[in-house]
Amino acid sequence: MDNQETQPPLQPAIPPAPVYQSPNNSYNWFKTLAIGFTIVAFCIALGIIGYILGTRKNNQVATHSTQKHATQKQQVSVVSPTISNPTANWKTYNNIQYNFSFQYPQSYSLSYSDCSSSSNIQTSCLITLIINPSNNKNDPTASFWLSKGVNNTQLLGQIASIHYNVSKKAWVFSQNGSSDQVLPSIGQTKSGLDIIKGTNGGSEESSYYYIIPDYTNDTVAIFQIPQSFRLRCDLILQHPDQQTECNNFYQSVINKYGGGKTISNTWLPENYINFLYSDAETMVKSFDFTANKNLLTTSLVTPSWKQYANVSSAPDYKPIAIINYPSTWTYTEQSLKGTADLLTSFKDDSGNVGIELQISSRNFNDDYLNLKQQFGTPQIETVNGKQAYLFHSTNSTNGWIDAYYFPIDYPRIKGFVAYKLVNEKDRNMWNTMLTFLKI
Predict the structure, then answer these.
(1) Overall average pLDDT of the 331-350 stretch
(2) Residue whose C-alpha is closest to residue 96's, from 292, 286, 314, 291
(3) Which residue from 279, 157, 169, 160 is spatially nearest to 213, judged by alpha carbons?
(4) Judging by DSSP bridges, how do beta strands 100-104 and 185-188 pair with one another?
C-alpha cells in the first residue's frame, strides 16, 4: 500500500458562469422607442421655445423701429416750417361798381379822393383812393387809381413819363433825349394779370408805380407807392402849432432811422419809407379784378340802365346801397370829411346834378333831430321793404327838395343813407330810381 502512488484530492467541479438572457425582447423594443420619442419631443420643445423667443424679439425690434420711425415723423412734423398767410389778418377793399378788390394791412386806412387830384390820369380816371400807412398826417401817403383806356394812361413825372407803347406792345419809361426803356413785370395778381413796375418823380418826391393792365376790358389799375419824400414843414406858415408838430415828427424819425443826423433838405430817411411800405408789393399782388361778380344783384338791373353800387365803409365790404340809373346819366364821387363818408352826385342829360346819394357814418339820431328842427316832422315811408324818413325842404339854399333818410345799423357803422332830389325836373326819374333802390 506504501508503494501505491498518491493521488491528489479531487477538486469539486466549478459550474459554468451563468449566461444573462433578456427575459422579454418586446420590453427592450418599447424602451428604445420611449427614449427616442423623448429625445424627439425635447427637440420639438426646444424648437418651439426658440421660435417664440425669436418672434418676440423680432416684434420688439419691429415695435422699437416703428416707435422710432413715428418719433422721427413727429420730430420732423414739429420742426417743419409753418407756411403762414401774410394777409390772413388784413382788411379787404371791395369795389362792386368796377368789380375789383385788394387787401391791405390793418395799420393802413383808405379814403376816397376826387379824380381831379389825379393829375396824371385825370381825363381817364374812374376812381381814386388815398392809402395812408399810419394815423400820422405827416407820413407820405400812397394812392390807387383805376383808369379807363390803356392808351390814355400816362404817369407823368417832372421830366419823364410812363405809358403804354403801342409799337413795342409794352409799358415804357420815356424821357426826352433817351430811347424808351421797357419796364419789367414783377409777377402776377391773384386774377393772373401782369404787374409792371417802374419809378418816376420830381424834385420833392419819387414813387414806385405798379401798373396792372386789363387789356380785355381796356382798364388799368395803378398803385403809387412812395420811394422818396421831402417833408416840407417850412411851408406850414399859417399854423405855427402844426409846423412845430411837423418839425418834432421829423426829428423823431431822424433820431430813430437816420442816426440823429439831419438829411439835407429834410428828406425822410429811405429806411423809414421802406418800413412804412414794407408790405406794399404784397398788397399789390392781392389785387383781383374778378372777386365781386357774384355780389351784384342782377335782378335790379333795368333794361338799358346802368347799376351803381356803393360800399364805402361797409362791413365785410358788401354794398350799402345799389341803385339803377339811366345810361345817359353820369356820376362823380367825393369824400366830404365831417359830413359824409361818400357823396355821389348823379348828373342828368343836361349835365346838371339832379340826384345825390350820401353814405354817412354820422350818428343818425343826432342828424334826425337836427333835420326835424329845420324841416319839421318827416313822413315815415317804406321803400323796398326798408323804413325811411322823408324830409321836404322849402329852403332852396339847402341844396335839395326832398330827401329819404334810411337808418343803417351795421357792426361797424351807425349812420344813414340819404337819397336826395336836387332838381324838381328830375322827380319822375328820381321816383323810378327809388323803385330800384336797395339798402
Answers:
(1) 75
(2) 292
(3) 169
(4) unpaired
